[in-house]
Amino acid sequence: xxxxxxxxxxxxxEGAELITSERFESGExxxxxxxxxxxxxxxxxxxxxxxxxGLANAExxxxxxxxxxxxxxxxxxxxxxxxDSADTLPILDRIERETGKIEVRILExxxxxxxxxxxxxxxxxxxxxxxxxxxxxxNEIGQFVERPDSVTALRAARRDAIHASYLGENHASIPPSExxxxxxxxxxxxxxxxxxxxxxxxxxxxxxxxxxxVRGDNVR
Length: 220
Hints:
This protein has helices at residues 21-25, 30-39, 43-56, 63-66, 83-99, 113-117, 149-167, 181-214; strands at residues 11-13, 16-18, 72-78, 102-108, 130-134, 140-145. With 220 residues, it is of the alpha+beta class. The chain has 2 domains: 11-148 and 200-214, Glutaredoxin, CATH 3.40.30; 150-192. Strand 1 (11-13) and strand 2 form a beta hairpin. The longest helix has 34 residues, at 181-214. The two termini are 30 Å apart.
């Protein structure tokens, strides 16, 4: 199914937000997203493959989802060059396959500005993925945005250490144009390796926060 937008079906009434069945069904399924990412080339293809491979043998706690009294619909706003979407969507697909308690559809973020702009991270940033959990009446019961803060902090600390090992403690003040190509390539290689070292933590923290969203712990 091609990526779709449905800008007319979202309405706001005194803060209530409605996503219709038509809009939800216009979204693409994970299998279509997966096939498109695997058919691509370059860094995003590699990041998606690493995400899928890293998740394959990971144990995840799906008990919150398995215990749901009825299935939930999950609407995800993303864009194809988003590495966080490549990390999160395979996790959602696995939860869907293992529990049968969620149904996922994917929409292009910037084709759906009404949803995007009403769910800005910290009220400022159009972060992706935006994961909305919806009940049978299309009411939002929780959301997950971008990635867990704990993962952001850990990656930032590890990335800073990598850059410092190549460029010294004042690396942040060095313009990228002054960094030799071979040094940039070596740092990128180390950063990508670091991402894989952090992946088990990313998976467990993402599942934890998705579970919190389903329980309504972080509803807007």
